[in-house]
Amino acid sequence: MDIVRKLYQAAKELLERRYPTGWGGAAAMYTIEDEVLTSVAPEVINASTELCIETGAILEAHKYNTKITHSICVVRDNENEEFKVLTPCGVCQERLIYWGRDVKVAVSSNDEKSLLFKTLEEVQPHHWSKAYKEEELFD
């Protein structure tokens, strides 16, 4: 199974297990060591303390000192609805660019059957990091 399908399947399985009914969302990320890290958003009482679905997997990558190469976020409105892929928000793009502009992220598409991945460079071609030399920011 290719990386794209593997990540989609991992996110979908976690979503279905963690949120069998109602709304649900899960993220899956692939690392340079061929590992899959997954996460969900923590449930909170105060909305100002919410974190993105991808945050847990990003923190795991930092904990294990590994590089993320691919990321996907999958949601569904309820158990009767189709799954949707969400492009990472600006904050998650900032979190992911730590590993370089070549990190591939799944992006939203109207075509439910195709999974489309783009590099952060493609998603954000005018990112602020362009003001610096590559070697100043990325290992």
Automatic annotation (TrEMBL):
<dbReference type="GO" id="GO:0004126">
    <property type="term" value="F:cytidine deaminase activity"/>
</dbReference>
<dbReference type="InterPro" id="IPR016193">
    <property type="entry name" value="Cytidine_deaminase-like"/>
</dbReference>
<keyword id="KW-0378">Hydrolase</keyword>
<protein>
    <submittedName>
        <fullName>Cytidine deaminase</fullName>
        <ecNumber>3.5.4.5</ecNumber>
    </submittedName>
</protein>
